[in-house]
Write a structure and sequence with these properties.
There is one protein chain. The protein is α/β, with parallel strands linked by helices. The chain has one domain. A three-stranded parallel β-sheet has the order 1-2-3, sandwiched between helices. Strand 2, helix 2 and strand 3 form a beta-alpha-beta unit. The longest helix is centred in the C-terminal third of the chain and has 16 residues. The protein is flat.
């Protein structure tokens, strides 16, 4: 059985879904296998959690791009 792997992954807060096309364009511009993390500017607990997850994935060899959400 073959395992499918997406080229890039973008993890964004639900409040950023209206900007999906913009985030998708940024994610598509990253190297294959990258993960784009969009962290909320106001929710400190979620921001901290997402940054920790990004650090764990980066330590495992993934290319990570962390950005703040759009206004």
């Amino acid at each position: 059985m073959r395992r499918l792997r997406p080229d890039n992954v973008a993890l964004v807060p639900a409040s950023q879904l209206p900007f999906r096309k913009e985030w998708q364009a940024i994610a598509n511009g990253l190297p294959p296998g990258s993960v784009l993390f969009v962290v909320p500017s106001s929710d400190n607990s979620m921001q901290c959690s997402m940054r920790r997850i990004a650090m764990v994935l980066q330590a495992r060899g993934h290319h990570i791009q962390v950005m703040s959400e759009l206004p």
